[in-house]
């Protein structure tokens, strides 16, 4: 059903059309965005509130608004990724993307009951993840994508499946392009006996899309001591992948490492769309004018997912009739399934230094091993039931509970605000205690009825990507530079 591409720490491959465990991590490992102020202080505002982004982290923060507010946050990302395979030189690819990181409105009311200071409602959108990235590398390595396809074709043929009915995205594609063929009623391919031949190869991956969460929240403040809130979240997933992979025999089709083989070109396309639902509960308790404590619980997100995909193969070779080029294209495939991502819990601390600013910190727990696929939503077969079981077992074995730590602060100088923050996002992989680091900063200018905030965030992700299962992995270093501008109006 689909391909997988590199995400942060994950080793992934762009190779068979089937769900993989790392797909679940892509949609549950969040790098929340939102307003520029929230981003600039590292997202550590759970105990403070009065910022729209907290509707996606601790909805109790909505209760701390004292006016109606409308805000809008455009964002610009500059991604740069270095990729290399083996001892070959690294290649750099960049991608620039424009997104809306946040848009929302808050309606502030004062209840008639004197014990309740506020009752507020918030509606809008916060960005939860950004997938925009390009990867390219080239080099030489042993093996071919056709090895796995031939093994699959051989198994299908020995099981009595007609070659015209081979799986159309792998073995069937190779058969249609004449990369897999018959000699004397025996199924074979050019790499028979040359399975580990060294080939030149290139690999280009272009990914775009993101995750945006629509939030509908309510929160109330009791006696300026206790704030409580609830958010109903509806996240939307949009993920698009286009990949081109080539293999080339450096000696050519007649004098190369593999007799008759010249080169091949394989393309992949995948589009994933999803919509989910979750509930977030939060509270903030003001111990004093200076010290605030916050806590929040996020239910799992229940996603309904849909994939559409296809691929092509161009195969160039030589035989007794000369040089030949065959092209094959798969049908357009589609697959519907469900995904449940983990619950989350966070605790936060805020210290307000009179009117001079604040310091804040937040800790979040998330169990990535509790991700769960449901591949039998549309129809159940022994194959999908077995794949579902294998995927969920792999998730429980290979991933773990991780801790995310956020800290930040703001210095108020009359109307001017100076901000800085840091994120330490825990690695979801079992046995890996590394953190993904993000560094943030920004400035703001606040008037009675208008404000403008500018934020910057830098993240570097080390990972790897493979073109197909069993291929040599290419190491990647990806750098994201995010710029966000929030314009807000109080009324």
Q: Would you kindly provide a written description of the structure presented here, covering whatever features stand out?
A:
By secondary structure, the protein is mainly β. The chain folds into 2 domains: 11-82 and 97-140 and 199-490, Outer membrane protein transport protein (OMPP1/FadL/TodX) (Porin, Beta Barrel), CATH 2.40.160; 145-196, no CATH class. The chain has 6 helices and 22 strands. It has helices at residues 21-28, 36-40, 146-158, 171-176, 252-255, 382-398, and strands at 11-13, 69-85, 91-109, 116-130, 133-142, 180-183, 186-189, 198-222, 226-248, 261-286, 291-298, 302-319, 322-329, 333-340, 344-352, 357-367, 372-374, 401-413, 416-426, 435-446, 450-466, 474-490. The strands form 2 sheets. The protein has a 14-stranded antiparallel beta barrel. It has a two-stranded antiparallel sheet with strand order 6-7. The longest helix has 17 residues, at 382-398. The chain is elongated. The chain starts with 10 loop residues before the first strand and ends with a strand. The model is unreliable at 1-16 (pLDDT under 50).
């Amino acid at each position: 059903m689909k391909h997988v591409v590199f995400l942060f720490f994950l080793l992934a491959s762009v190779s068979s059309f089937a769900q993989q465990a790392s797909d679940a991590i892509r949609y549950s490992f969040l790098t929340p965005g939102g307003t520029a102020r929230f981003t600039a202080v590292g997202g550590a505002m759970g105990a403070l509130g009065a910022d729209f982004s907290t509707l996606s982290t601790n909805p109790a923060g909505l209760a701390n608004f004292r006016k109606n507010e409308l805000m809008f946050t455009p964002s610009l990302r500059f991604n740069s990724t270095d990729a290399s395979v083996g001892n070959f030189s690294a290649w750099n690819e960049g991608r620039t993307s424009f997104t809306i990181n946040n848009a929302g409105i808050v309606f502030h009311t004062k209840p008639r009951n004197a014990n309740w200071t506020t009752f507020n409602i918030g509606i809008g959108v916060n960005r939860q993840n950004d997938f925009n990235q390009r990867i390219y590398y080239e080099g030489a390595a042993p093996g071919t994508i056709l090895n796995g396809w031939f093994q699959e074709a051989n198994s299908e043929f020995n099981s009595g499946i007609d070659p015209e009915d081979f799986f159309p995205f792998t073995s069937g594609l190779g058969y249609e392009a004449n990369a897999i063929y018959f000699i004397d009623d025996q199924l074979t391919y050019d790499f028979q006996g040359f399975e580990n031949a060294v080939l030149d190869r290139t690999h280009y991956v272009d990914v775009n899309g993101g995750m945006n969460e629509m939030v509908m929240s309510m929160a109330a403040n009791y006696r300026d001591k206790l704030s409580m809130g609830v958010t109903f979240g509806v996240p939307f997933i949009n993920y698009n992948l286009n990949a081109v992979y080539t293999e080339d025999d450096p000696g050519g089709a007649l004098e190369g490492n593999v007799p008759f083989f010249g080169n091949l070109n394989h393309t992949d396309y995948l589009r994933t769309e999803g919509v989910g639902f979750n509930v977030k509960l939060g509270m903030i308790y003001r111990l004093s004018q200076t010290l605030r404590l916050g806590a929040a619980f996020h239910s799992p997100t229940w996603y309904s997912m849909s994939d559409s995909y296809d691929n092509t193969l161009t195969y160039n070779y030589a035989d007794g009739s000369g040089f030949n080029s065959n092209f094959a294209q798969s049908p357009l495939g589609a697959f519907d399934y469900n995904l449940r991502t983990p619950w989350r819990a966070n605790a936060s601390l805020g210290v307000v230094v009179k009117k001079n600013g604040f310091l804040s910190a937040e800790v979040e727990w998330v169990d990535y091993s509790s991700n769960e696929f449901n591949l039998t939503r549309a129809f159940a077969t022994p194959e999908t039931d077995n794949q579902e079981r294998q995927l969920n077992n792999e998730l429980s074995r290979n991933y773990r509970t991780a801790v995310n730590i956020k800290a930040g602060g703001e210095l108020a100088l009359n109307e001017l605000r100076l901000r800085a923050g840091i994120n330490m996002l825990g690695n979801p992989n079992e046995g890996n205690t590394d953190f993904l680091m993000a560094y943030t900063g920004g400035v703001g200018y606040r008037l009675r009825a208008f404000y403008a905030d500018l934020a910057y965030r830098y993240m570097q992700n080390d990972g790897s990507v493979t073109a197909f299962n069993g291929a040599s992995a290419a190491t990647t270093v990806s750098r994201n530079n995010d710029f966000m501008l929030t314009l807000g109006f109080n009324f």
